[in-house]
Amino acid sequence: GIEGYVGSAMLRLFLEEFLPQLEPQSTGLLFVHAINPWGMKHGRTTNARNVDLNRNFVRDPEAFDPAANPDYGRLAATLNPEGPIRSLFWSNVSFFLKLLWHMAALGPGRLRQAALLGQYRFPSGIYYGGESLQEETRVLIDLYRRHIRGYER
Q: What is the pTM of this model?
């Protein structure tokens, strides 16, 4: 996604500065770049289906539980308003007041967790992890499995 540009810079730095210092006989490397080219092109952290691939990378399919992070459901309408904005000023005022109400109801820690933890219920919401593994995630898991066989932990 959007972090691909930073990833590219870090990869280049690694190749120039650190790779020459590694012992090739005892070091195995696998470089993967631009896992989410759509997000990189469009400046998004999600793929084209609005799935946050960080939250899609799960070991257990049960993790795609719509009931996970129940507090997000209370915030969904505030964080993802529908329809056009008629007045930026009043929209901002309304958002701020709703946020204060949620903070009073949940407390700051729970509000932060509800907003940032990720969720699997609202496909158009923020930090949506999807309902199943995305193609990008499947490809990466398969790539890792193929290339790490035979390496010690």
A: 0.84
